[in-house]
Structure formats: structure tokens, C-alpha cells
Design a protein that fits this description.
Layout: E1 2-5, E2 18-20, H1 23-30, E3 36-38, H2 41-73, E4 76-81, E5 88-93, H3 95-106, E6 115-116, E7 121-123, E8 125-133, E9 136-146
Parallel strand pairs: 4-9
Antiparallel strand pairs: 1-2, 1-3, 5-7, 6-8, 8-9
Length: about 150
């Protein structure tokens, strides 16, 4: 069965992607949970139009971020987390937390996919994280403090 994904589904498909999925998975999980819809001629035309608009908006956001990379490289973000006496965090800091803090501190709309983080930050201290947009990159300094 051909479906159009309405949200990103890990290991299955990305938003607005059209794929062939098994009937049972589509009818019993994806469609009832509003993660996908059946692909008809009308819905495919609508998705193609939305995808074009979405890519244009995305391009504008990426261009603005490229211009803001200098601001990102000069900035320091402070994140607090619960840690033990040795400085190991109980919960790692992932890209989502970094994006939220950048939004609050620097007032920049940054997508998690632009942050290159090999593994979650699990230690208190100063860390450098690479932010890569298009072919340009900057290093964001993150200070993790014990709560």
C-alpha cells in the first residue's frame, strides 16, 4: 500500500515522503496514529505542492542560519543538569536540549539535524559542539553545570 508520511517515523520514512508499506502496518498503525495517509492522486498533488513550499521555507531558514554562524561561534550556552559528586550527569544532554537552549538564549531557530553530536553529553564541564548548516560550520561552546 502506498502511503504519504505526515510525520517522521524512524527507520520507515520522513515527513511528506511517499513509500510502499505493508498493508497491515499502514492500516493498523500508521494511519490510525496519523503518522501517514493513503496516497491518492489528489493527496500526492497536495503533498508535492506542500513539499515545494516547505523546501523554499527551509532554504530561507538555512540561509539565515548561515549568516548567524558567526554569532553561534562567539556564544556560550549554559545548561544545568542533575549530576553525582563525580560530575557525571544522570541524564545525557541531547540535541533537542541544545536546540531549546539556543532558542532561549540566542533567539535562533535551529533544527536538531544541524547539530553534530556523536553521543549525548554526560559530564559536567565545557564542551564544544559542531553546528553545520549547508557547507558552513561553527563551533558552539556549551557549559554544563551541576544543578
Amino acid at each position: 500500500m502506498k502511503v504519504i508520511f505526515t510525520k517522521d517515523v524512524p527507520k520507515k520514512g520522513k515527513k511528506y515522503e511517499i513509500k510502499d508499506i505493508s498493508d497491515g502496518y499502514a492500516l493498523n498503525f500508521l494511519i490510525p496514529n496519523r503518522l501517514a495517509e493513503a496516497a491518492t492522486k489528489e493527496s500526492i498533488k497536495r503533498v508535492e505542492m506542500i513539499r515545494g513550499q516547505d523546501s523554499a521555507v527551509r532554504k530561507v531558514r538555512e540561509d539565515l542560519l548561515v549568516k548567524s554562524l558567526q554569532k553561534i561561534s562567539e556564544s556560550t550556552i549554559t545548561i544545568t543538569g542533575k549530576a553525582n559528586e563525580k560530575g557525571h550527569l544522570f541524564a545525557g544532554i541531547h540535541t533537542v536540549e541544545i536546540v531549546d537552549e539556543v532558542k532561549k538564549t540566542l533567539h535562533l531557530e535551529l533544527d536538531p539535524e544541524f547539530i553534530v553530536l556523536e553521543k549525548p553529553i554526560k559530564e559536567v564541564g565545557e564542551h564544544k559542539v559542531l553546528v553545520k548548516v549547508q557547507d558552513k560550520s561553527a563551533t558552539l561552546k556549551i557549559v554544563v553545570q551541576k544543578a
